[in-house]
Design brief:
This protein has 122 residues and is mostly helical. It contains 4 helices and no strands. The chain starts with a helix and ends with a helix. Keywords: Membrane, Transmembrane, Transmembrane helix.
Amino acid sequence: MSNTYLVALVGSILVLAGIVELLRRRQLGEKYAVLWLVVGILLLIFTVFPGLLTGIASGLGVAVPTNLMFFVGILFLVGVVLHLSWEVSRLENETRKLAEDQAILRLEVEQLQRDKQENVTD
């Protein structure tokens, strides 16, 4: 076994262990859990079986297996960024609606307090 292989294997195991630990501590949401577990497992599989990436690349007509890995990685990251942008937009809309609802409730509470004070002074 070469040093590069051992470093890659240890790195893959650490990434997968980190993902599992984030899930265990509930710091990674369930909706992202499957996605990141699949990424961690695929990383470990391609580390343990390096010829697999070469076989897939040649099957798809990609000359350099690393290029395929980077292409798939970039597509994955673009998908993650797009999804997170959608989530941020949704949360911004929800935050704005909650702020509007809270302002309406505050106005109603102030009106009730004024009405109550007027009734007490009468």
